[in-house]
Amino acid sequence: MKKLAVPRWIKAYASFILANWLLFTAFRGIFLFVFRSALVPEAYHELWKTFYLGAKFDARFACALAIPLGLYLTVCAFWKGARWIKKGVGVFYGLLESAVLLVYFADFAHYAYISMRINSSIFKYAENPLISLQMAWETYPVLWGVLGVLVWAALVYWFVVKLCKYAFSRDDKYRWKGKLGWFFAGLLVTGGLMFGQISQYPLRWSNAYHSTNNFICNLTLNPGLNLFDTARFAKNVSFDEEKTAEYYDEVSRFLGVQNPDKENLNFTRTFEGKPQEDQKDYNVVVIFMESLAWNKTSMTNPDIDPTPFVKELADKGILFNHFFTPTSATARAVFATVTGIPDVTSYKTSSRNPLIVDQHVVINSLKDYEKYYFIGGSSSWGNIRGILEHNISNVHMYEEGKFENEHRNDVWGISDLDLFREANRILEQEQKETKKPFFAIIQTAGYHRPYTIPEDNAGFEFQNIGADKAHKRSFVSVEEYNSLRFSDHALKEFFKLAEKSDYWDNTLFVIFGDHGLSAPQSENMPRGYVDHNLINHQVPLILAGPVVKEPRVIEKTASQVDIFPIVMGMLGRPYFTRAIGRDVLSNDALEGGALIYGWANEPHPIGFVQGEYFYNNKGGMEGLYKYGAENYNEDLSKKEPQRFEHMKKLALGLFETSQYLEYNNKKKNETDN
Fold first, then answer.
1. Which tens digits make up the pLDDT trace of 376-391?
2. How far apart are CA 449 and CA 443, in angstroms?
3. Where are the alpha helices (DSSP H) in 500-547?
4. Which of 48, 253, 432, 611 is 20 to 30 A from 519, comparing alpha carbons?
5. Cβ proximity of 283 and 507 under 8 Å
């Protein structure tokens, strides 16, 4: 068998990638050495993962830089006439790699200055170039830096020209078909290295935020890629301190700020908790039910009964029947629930924005708890991995590929039923080992197109109510109706398993929909509720389980951002927060209300729900409505001016404050003490 002879132009291309990869790895090692004082002993065990992930980011950056060279070498392989411009290619890479070196220089200086890796905010210095240049001149060895860059440019020029000469110093034996084959082989390998992992989703910036320790995450980042990733969001950094201050008085009263300070925009509230003997150590299981919209449940559709078990839980537990999500998207729901801040970004989602990944989370106050997150697919979806791993201390992440019993159901991973089974098995097993209370988040995803019902479905039976009836009752199809029924069925099976577990007697279950769903017909709902698009936002919130002793219905309007503070109130534990979420269950003095933000529409509507009233503002076109009334389109702003002004200030104030807090809710320190 003949030995495979790799063409020299492919070897040259691979050598360029390898040289850059080794260089970037060396820079990471230097970064660790220079800033080693920031590395605490508790984080030593995370270094292996940091360098492993960092190597993958570096490989992606090296491949991106190599693409022009690869294309040039490919052209040269087919057309010898192109080889004469190799010196021009050398000049191009001398300049390009000099720019890369400058990025690394700036990155080291940036981190030394403010303990943050270089990101798109560096371009703000260009707004005052003379001042910025003078500061750099007086602070850093600029002349030595310039000299270093010039020497580096010359070395890169020499290296690239040398590679180009080597690439075609002898003719290879391959004809055009063989050369084309090697080109596609190189393309495939480059694409694989840039994708970064064997998974449904590519390597993303959120993978770097695998720790709550900021230095570990900073060490994982590649500065060139971080500059690119953050640049996409830079133009959308849109908080306005002046507008936040304008509405501060109204918002601070709504939030219950104990020590208002308009000048410093203080939104911090500190809660001492109940006396020690009254504090609880309940296990907490928070269940995101995918698209569990209020208009689709058995509470509003009793005759077709799509969610009989959810209704059973509501009847036995505490039901918030006037509960709204700020937005209508799952990644936004995760951000809002975990951070307590509505995701009001107009560009993509806040979970995808590396500039705001660092957030204070109230459940970190539960320092004696084990924390878990379960999802049937991948937490790389929507980049929620960064929000969860970086901000929830020592969270145990379970996702597709990490379960013992996996049967992939469809694009969303394993079925909700399998997810609940695995979550119960893991929680039961680990609590026996740790003897600690736990806080677990389970996020379902099966109630999505293509509405797949798994073969292993625990006796689920399909029901055909007819397409016409399904449409009238808020469903797009009979398949969607049955998909929700299966989601409810899977939840029931989970509770059956949980009832047999050791953790059952001491557990609080929190069940809610991540968002609502549009359904134009929805004859089971008031017409104004549909036309004002509140159908996309209202979901049930149910507090259930053996620790809930008195069933009741909470009529007060509440928001998704209130969930974690409500849980902390039920536990009676101390915590602090500066976010929008409030414990509206324990504190009767807080007025009800929920911010609504229509990110998917232009202009983006900003609204506020309070009881039967809805304030809505679409690009300045505003009004106050009773959405459940027959004359739901009548603007009541003139008839009830005081209510109109109050709800308007809360709507616009909470919107501006949410934008501000997304960038100003960082953890106090590494442990959130």
1. 998 988 889 999 999 9
2. 16
3. 527-531
4. 611
5. yes
